[in-house]
Specification:
The complex is a heterodimer of chains A (about 230) and B (about 240). Chain A has about 230 residues and is α+β, with helices and mostly antiparallel strands. Chain A is built from 5 helices and 11 strands; from the N terminus they run H-E-E-E-H-E-E-H-E-E-E-E-E-H-E-H. Chain B is mainly β. Chain B is elongated and about 80 Å long. The chains are: A alpha+beta (about 230), B mainly beta (about 240).
Chain lengths: ~230, ~240
């Protein structure tokens, strides 16, 4: 099974669990002792999904840092809490770069990096309105589409295994809605084959992402504690 | 249903078939040194790695046929050394072009890369000798009496140099580097004089042979030592 197949399989699994958790919500609103009604999103497996705009910054002494200039991007993310504050999630998105030095890279002037990966993380929520998250990629693959100088009529593809480390902060403006800012460091291991002289230039794709987005929260309990309570 | 599926497949084919894709996950390095006819380094010369690929629109190639794509380029440094990082294309028409500019000859390293990847992903061109271009100005005039005929030929080296490599080994038969070109003419009363400028390079050799009125052939050899090399001959 290839890494891409594993990602697809796990993504489908997580998404199925997410869907199942929504279906399993109570239809009738419940009331606490205080008599306040809660929406159906307050029950079942806890998780979130969101969308974010990214500012991307190439870094390091590899070909990204030497030749690329970030042009922005976006990402879709979801996560499900597995146990206590630990969560599993998936991220899918695109980052765009301009190539400013073709002598470093070969002849193409822009690159679109499609990134799809799964991550494992932990959330710490000191107060009701704030949540701190850290996560690291488990596995995933990036596809770099390098478009030729003369236009979109020709291109070349590079692939890389994703290595992502992220810290993020959620500020809850409503119980199920938060503003999310995050910083992601990417140190992807490329599959580029080249001469021994150039190998060290092309073996990694390094860049950082600063993202701003919104997250929608649902559910109340982590998967394991949720099953325990059934 | 069948027609719809066919139509959808055709639309997909038309949309995506216009694009040319180069080899995935590969970068090639091309190294070498540009020198002149005296093995002295020449700085700041363009070196480009190219491929030719047919662009298909639908089932047909474009009217212009194959198109050249630049995969990577660089310039030689002050020592004449160059190192070009480029993409790679598995193609029958893959070549590296060293541009001598207006004053020097060009060089082409040509290779069928359809089933060939260079060892360690390097094309090492070693020393690429780019000679100074020269014009051969041949001027023949008749000073003798009517009825005198001249048979002559002139052979000189072409400035074009394309070396063809098969699996990394030079194939002399397919190559065309400074090949000798010849012109044969007979001058007589109908056309007593001849004037022609041919392109060659400094250090190139010229062989000029002639025979007057069917007599013994005389052969003279010259080595080009200036940009405009004049050969004035009268008979």
């Amino acid at each position: 099974m290839t890494s891409t197949s594993v990602i697809k399989f796990v993504s489908v699994l997580l998404f199925s669990m997410f869907t199942l958790s929504i279906w399993c919500q109570e239809v009738e609103p419940k009331y606490n002792n205080d008599g306040v009604g809660h929406s159906t999103l307050d029950y079942g497996v806890k998780g979130s999904f969101g969308i974010a705009y990214n500012v991307v910054n190439p870094s390091g002494d590899k070909y990204f840092g030497l030749a690329y200039k970030g042009k922005g991007g976006y990402a879709l993310k979801f996560k499900l809490f597995v146990y206590d504050g630990f969560f599993l999630g998936g991220s899918s998105g695109f980052s765009y770069f301009e190539n400013t030095n073709i002598e470093i890279t070969g002849n193409y002037d822009k690159t679109r990096v499609g990134s799809h990966y799964l991550f494992l993380g932990y959330e710490y929520r000191p107060v009701e309105k704030l949540a701190f998250n850290v996560n690291a990629s488990l596995f995933g693959e990036a596809r770099h589409k390098n478009e030729y100088n003369a236009g979109n009529e020709s291109y070349q593809i590079d692939k890389a295994k994703i290595r992502a480390f992220e810290v993020s902060l959620d500020y809850f403006v409503a119980p199920n809605f938060s503003i999310n800012v995050y910083y992601t460091y990417r140190n992807d291991k490329t599959k580029i084959k080249t001469s021994s002289d150039l190998q060290s230039r092309f073996d990694r794709a390094q860049f950082s992402i600063i993202g701003l987005g919104v997250n929608f929260q649902f559910g109340k309990e982590a998967i394991i504690s949720s099953f325990k309570n059934k | 249903m069948y027609k719809k599926t066919t139509l959808i497949l055709l639309v997909i084919f038309f949309v995506f078939s216009c694009e040319v894709q180069f080899d995935r996950n590969i970068r090639i390095e091309t190294t070498g040194k540009t020198v002149d006819e005296n093995s002295i380094a020449i700085p700041n010369l363009f070196v480009g790695v190219f491929t030719e690929a047919a662009r298909f629109i639908g089932f047909y190639p474009t009217l212009n046929g194959d198109r050249e794509y630049l995969l990577g380029s660089s310039n030689s440094d002050e020592n004449g050394d160059f190192s070009v990082t480029s993409l790679f294309d598995s193609d029958q028409d893959f070549f590296i072009f060293v541009d001598g500019g207006d004053s020097r000859t060009n060089y082409i390293y040509s290779s069928d890369t359809f089933d060939f990847e260079p060892q360690n992903f390097i094309f090492n061109l070693d020393e690429v000798s780019l000679k100074k271009k020269a014009n051969i100005n041949l001027n023949i005039t008749r000073t003798s009496a009517l009825g005198t005929a001249l048979d002559f030929y002139i052979s000189y080296q072409s400035p074009l140099c394309e070396e063809v490599f098969v699996n990394g080994v030079l194939d002399e038969a397919l190559s065309n580097c400074n090949r000798v070109e010849s012109v044969f003419r007979t001058l007589n009363d109908d056309s007593p004089n001849y004037e022609k400028t041919s392109n060659s390079f400094i250090t190139g050799t010229i062989e000029f042979g002639y025979s007057i009125n069917g007599g013994a052939e005389t052969i003279e050899t010259f080595i080009i030592n200036q940009e405009n090399y004049d050969i004035n001959f009268s008979y």
